Task: structure prediction
Amino acid sequence: MSNYVPTDLLIEILVKLPVKSLIRFAAVSKSWRSIITSAAFIASHLSKGKNHTLIHTLSTNSLVKFTEGVPLAVNSPSKLEFPYYESHSIYLRIVDSCDGLVCLSNNFFKINFAQSPGVIWNPSVRNHVVLPDPTINPKDAYISVLGFGVDAGRTHHKVVRFLYCRNAAGIFTTRVEIFSLKTWSWRRLIGGVDITLHAYPSLYFRQVFLNGVVHWLIEKKPIGDNSFRRSYILAFDVGDEVFGEVMLPEWEAGGSGFAKLSIFVIKESLGVVKSTGESCDVWVMKEYCVKESWTKLYTVRLFEKIKLVVGVLNSGEALLALEKSRLVVYNSETKQTKDLGIYGKFFIHNYVESLLLLKGHMLWR
Result:
């Protein structure tokens, strides 16, 4: 009996396997490695990947991965080890995850000294690359914000970096540069963001990537003594490299008052959570960029104070930080919480396993 397996059948079998198994099988033979490291196979495998949730605890700088479909519980996550780089960081931060690639920054903002390089990391294949130094490093005080995503065709991954610079006269200007993983270079974007926006990111400023667009929650500087600080969502189209604005629900039009606002991806749509500490409302934009399509999914009310809405899972469950920075999962149907046994300050990110950055394969170069 022949041991020959037709290539088409072999690919059909391999594409269903997890990354860990494929890494082992890539060492079986040159022909298998050629298949597994091919761009076509990697793209096909990525399209069939399972969704996971990454929870980054800042206080301990630990990272755990939960698998979608498996109930969140204390004993269900698997721990991941960050790659080592640049020890002089303020703290390690995940910018976002896209196609199995995690963009890392070793700080949130820098003042009066050069920005350190970022890192693109694939924890599934345990490989990473360090980005070259940015080209924009103002001498005056500045805040820099990173974004990470891929164009709608999922062929061109980019890092966008915009800086809010204040000169000695106290005047703010905005500068933008883009790093292409395909050309492996930084390029300055001329006329990228309206400099009158005067956005003020907080320490826990985060992005949301959805359908080829990176989103940030922005607070616009008020005009006049009686004006509110109006929040909205700043959007960057990774493919077209243009900025736009996404309006929040109508309740936000007059200002957010004392409420905290957070944006997330909720059930493959853009979502926003408005929290007052006593309760929080979870909203989703059912039709992208259509303001009237904002719909409130549910309201969370607990006996304990809600310190922070960490994220909303694809299942619709909310991750909440309560008193003593205790992380719990809230089920909107049962209105019950489940303690995860994790404490600290958290970030949550969606993640899917992929073969990008597998050693011996460099997609962009």
Remarks:
- The mean pLDDT is 79.
- The helical segments are 7-14, 19-25, 30-36, 39-47.
- The chain is about 10% helix and 40% strand.
